[in-house]
Write a structure and sequence with these properties.
The radius of gyration is 18 Å and the shape is globular. It contains nine helices and twelve strands. The chain is α/β, with parallel strands linked by helices and 284 residues long. It has two domains: 56 residues, Spermidine synthase, tetramerisation domain (Spermidine Synthase, Chain: A, domain 2, Roll); 221 residues, Rossmann fold (3-Layer(aba) Sandwich). The strands form two sheets. The chain has a seven-stranded mixed sheet, with helices on both faces. The structure holds S-adenosylmethionine (SAM). S-adenosylmethionine binds next to β6 and α4. The site of S-adenosylmethionine (SAM) has 23 residues, from β6 and α4.
């Protein structure tokens, strides 16, 4: 039954001719930060919703899928991750997942917009529950500049949890930035970056693989997963490294002492199984 009186938040993607709506009850917060428009809504079925520049960013109900899949596959692929940098990640959900790994010694979060984190702390307290972990370190600055100044061979894993390749995030999707990441990672270091929708953004996915390889990463590999609130409902993360990306610490996954609600060893393996049209595009 369609309740025409309901209010809806709709993200209309004019580039791809798609739109997605969540039924909302009220707008709880709104502000224009130095970088973007930020709003928080209460929804009827997805808990709280954060939007940035009127794009759906995170909800209580389904963020676990994205945050687990941008974090655990890359960390369990690395032989022994100790120092991790998250570029973006302002809602702090990725940081929380990284810090579930007991052997992580330091998690740096470089988020350009401090307001995203401060508002997330108010409206998404569970996503921010690890913010006071002594291993967490916050840098509110441009990830591009931060990486250019970072010490070489100083990171085991870099996770790029940014907004779409527009505005301040655009420079996080090119060879120059990947070259800096390659310099800052150790020889066994790995990069994981949110790489948009395999259905709607395949040319971007292709260009990311090419740029990562031109930057010196010998191997690149894309995994995918459902993500209801993002355009097409189908999202991806692309890994880059110098060694094999197919092997992972399966025993450590099976015997891990922390909870995940989407990620497990079978999902890890299956998420790298790609549809034929994607395989063919990435071979080009
Ligand atoms: N999960 C979301 C997605 O896939 O679209 C992204 C989560 S998080 C909210 C994205 C963050 O990237 C935003 O808080 C934004 O401020 C940040 N960001 C964008 N460009 C950045 C840059 N150049 N350096 C650091 N953070 C950046």
């Amino acid at each position: 039954m369609t309740n025409l009186d309901s209010k809806w938040f709709t993200e209309a993607d004019y580039t791809n001719g798609v739109a997605f709506s969540l039924r909302v009850t009220q707008k709880l917060h709104e502000e224009t930060t130095p970088f973007q428009h930020l709003a928080i809504y209460d929804t009827t079925d997805f808990g709280k919703l954060m939007t940035l520049d009127n794009m759906l960013m995170v909800t209580d109900r389904d963020n676990f899928i994205y945050h687990e899949m941008i974090t655990h596959p890359v960390l369990f692929t690395h032989p022994a991750p100790r120092k991790v940098a998250i570029i973006g990640g302002g809602d702090c959900g990725t940081l929380r997942e990284v810090l579930k790994h007991p052997d992580i010694k330091q998690a740096l979060q470089i988020e350009i917009d401090e307001r995203v984190t401060r508002v997330a702390e108010q409206y998404f307290p569970t996503l921010c529950e690890s913010n006071r972990d002594p291993r967490a370190e916050f840098h509110f600055e441009d990830g591009i500049k931060w990486m250019a100044n970072a010490k070489e061979n100083s990171l085991d894993v870099i996770i790029i949890d940014s907004t779409d390749p527009l505005g301040p995030a655009e420079g996080l999707f090119n060879e120059e930035f990947y070259r800096q990441c390659h310099r800052v990672l150790t020889p066994t270091g790995l990069l994981a970056q949110q790489s948009e929708s395999p259905l709607l953004h395949l040319p971007l996915l292709q260009s990311m693989h090419q740029a990562m390889r031109q930057a010196g990463f010998g191997r690149t590999r894309t995994l995918h997963f459902p993500q209801c609130i993002y355009p097409s409902g189908w999202w991806s993360v692309t890994l880059a490294g110098m060694g094999d990306l197919t092997e992972f610490r399966i025993a450590d996954v099976v015997h891990k002492h922390f909870e995940t609600r989407y990620y497990n060893a079978d999902i890890h393996r299956a998420s790298f199984a790609l549809p034929t049209f994607v395989i063919e595009a990435l071979l080009d």
